[in-house]
Amino acid sequence: MPSEGKIVTAGAEPVKVEERELAFAAKQGCLDAFEQLVTCFEGRLFAFLYQKTSDHHLAQDLLQSTFVIAYRKLHLYNPRFSFASWLYTIASRQAINHFRNKRIFERDQVGQTLDSDPSSELIAREQAKSLWNRAREVLSERQYDAIWHFYGEELNLAETADVMNRSVGSVKVLLHRARRKLAEELLGDAEQ
Fold first, then answer.
1. What is the distance between the alpha carbons of residues 95 and 93, in angstroms, rounded to a whole number?
2. Are 13 and 82 in contact (CB under 8 A)?
3. What is the count of structural domains for the chain?
4. Other beta carbons less than 10 A from residue 79's beta carbon
5. Quick one: 160 and 81 in the same domain?
6. Closest Cα partner for 52 from 65, 63, 40?
7. Which of 3, 9, 59, 182 has its CA 20 to 30 A from that of 150?
């Protein structure tokens, strides 16, 4: 039986022994251990998701999908670190993805009602595709990734930094240099 309440330091982050042992057992395939983790975290995770969504049913759906993803990706969890942090990261990303997809859907719906001309839609898509292809050609891989996450996926600076595993300051520098380089290239193309 796991010891309760003891704290062990893993890296710079304290981890409860019970949580760590349950997560390790779940990672090894113990369904009972995973169920205990679900029981332990479902109330707090629901409150967290409800705070983000203000919708009881949506919070329940996101909670369910969080645990499904956690179970499917359990092999990626590193037991040296907090299971809670890993789980909350999944939940947070589920909420972000939900609202991002909702925003994209609403924007597409508005665009369809305002501009239903197929030729203008095709031209707009081709221009955007051409711009992204040009960015891929002229920018470094890190600059392109920063631009893509920030503008293409509409992540904020902190989210972009998290996805790229870089500091916010580093992402700001990458974005600044990428925008400057793209502007120079596009002005150069226009002058020719």
1. 5
2. yes
3. 2
4. 19
5. no
6. 63
7. 59
pLDDT tens digits, residue range 27-47?
Answer: 898 999 999 999 999 999 998
Query: Same structural domain for residues 145 and 55?
Result: no
Domain limits at 168? 117-192
User: How many other CB atoms sit within 10 Å of the CB of residue 95?
Assistant: 18
What does the mean pLDDT of the chain come to? 79
CA dist 84 → 4, 55, 64, 134, 146 (Å):
16, 23, 16, 41, 28
Burial-class residue 28 by CB neighbours within 10 Å (0-12, 13-18, 19+): exposed
Q: For residues 66 and 93, give the distance between their C-alpha atoms in angstroms, rounded to a whole number.
A: 9
Asked whether the predicted pLDDT for residue 168 surpasses 60, the reply is yes
pLDDT digits (tens, 9 = 90+) for 139-157: 898 898 888 888 877 788 8
Structure tokens at 76: 């990626």
Residues 6+ apart with CB under 8 A from 23: 33, 37, 77, 79, 83
Count CB atoms within 10 A of the CB of residue 21.
Answer: 16
SS3 label, residue 67: helix
Give the position of tokens 């700001």.
172
